[in-house]
Fold these 2 entries.
Entry 1:
Amino acid sequence: MTPQRTYTVAQLAEHVRGSVRGDASLMITSVQTLEGASSSDVSFLAKTSYVPALRATAAGCVVLRESDATQSPSAACIIVDDPYRSIVEIIALMYPPVRLPDGLRDVSSTIDPTAQIDATAAISPGCRIGAGCVVGAHTQLHPNVVLEQGTQIGSNTVLYANVTCYYDTIIGDQCIIHSGAVIGSDGFGFVERPDKSFIKIPQVGRVRIGNDVEIGANTTIDRAAIGETIIDDGVKLDNLVHIAHGVQIGAHTAIAAQTGVSGSTTLGQRNRLAGQVGVVGHIQITDDVVVFAQSGVGKSITTPGVYFGSPVKDHRTALRIEAAARNLPDLVHELDTLRRDVDELKKAQSHE
């Protein structure tokens, strides 16, 4: 990030459409936690569990709801309806991202003469751009990005260092792809011979990524065997996510780290997959589904809702099963006691 800019409390309040209590002229130089803040910092309170930290903070300004303002010892407060969203807006204002100079063409980069590079795009050291590639306006390629032939990238997109896009990849506008991501590598497709060796299935499709997509570091998205692997608009993928060949992910879905989605599976819109979720291939998950961490999705989910477990179940059902499982030792002990009592009754009856 570039060095943050300095703002008055009044300027920050105007930016987040809030009101000021206290010293509106106070200069704010950075954003900090309640515990780590000093008199020139702005912090925030979004959860009541942090009220003790609020009461002890040295922050010069705190962003919070009106109901919490009386508990703040700071010189100024910014009153808003949603402190968490407002502090995100303040961070974005005070810490603008690093941007490469428009029109940068580092001499160490290699650009095929048939590539179409917008005059405002920035190409960093070590980049390699293949034949027929297209790079849109104000798009930024950081060091050692590789675009194989036929790759197309829209405008205002950022590819960080060491991103590799295999041939014919399509990436939309305003995307962010973090370092080490690999887009369009071969899907895991093989035919098993009678002797248990393998024949590789050619992977001749491509990856298509929509607009406003963010892809985390070292995430991999495989090209389709035939057709397209599709990542729709607004999708957010964490670090170390694997998307297999032919997967389709609906708009505004978010997937956390170490999750894997197997081939030819379709995820609906606005899904939320937590960390280390596994999804089998050739199934469909409908819109508005939440899957909790370390769950295994082994069949299609056709009803919106919250799911958990392996195999995955409706969240409430899964919690009841978990609760019952925790009681199993006591239940087994009770069962053993009942068996002994029954055996003693049987013995007593046999002696009568």
Entry 2:
Amino acid sequence: MPTPQPARQMDIRVLSIGTLAAHPLWEERHPVRTGHSTTTLVQTNDAKIIVDPGLPATVLKARLNERSGLTPDQITHVFLTSFNPECRRGIELFDKAQWLISEKERESVGVPIAQSLARIAQSKEVAQQANEEFDESQQSMLQVLQRDVAELSRCIPAPDSIVEGVDLFPLPGFSLGLCGLLIAEPTRTTLLCGDAIPTVEHLEEGKVLPTCADRKLAQESFKEAIEIADSLILGRDNIVINPTRKGI
């Protein structure tokens, strides 16, 4: 007689609620705080997945333990909904995990980053040859770009399904390759939206961020998000019930 298999377990919890540096629907036109993404932990029998580690590593390490009792070396995967720096500030904390990002996002940001790095590196070389001081702001930018290249190089294209029940859900618009995660449970579906739907105000007013790479695409992704899921984990906010499903 075959041995019964344990039921697949799924646990989704927000580790840290994110925030926008400037919330356009609060009439904020300039940064008034440090922006960071909502960070979520998805646990199954087969994986422990951190989505968008937006806090600094030291803060995120404490928050992970507070909310789950886990340590960073127990995390198996990190998934970035986009390559926005505010979505990956603490990614180095999970150096034993596999880092994942959508293939389209990786491709769309990779070339511009490499081109910018090459331009600044060439400027530095020219300055050195002329025995001129290299601009401090450019030196800072060079370091940022070098880190970007190192992190993007380590990120590999995510498969359509990371593990059973955790599937990629493309939401292009804010960035060209932004991709959420659709999580199927027996009684509901949950969509991790990233910046496709950043806050509850954006959800309620049906608006996307003004800084979208492609506004039309972003609006289409917004509609798809609210059509597909029962619950939504917003990119800079908490988990919410899809307002179109209330009362059902």
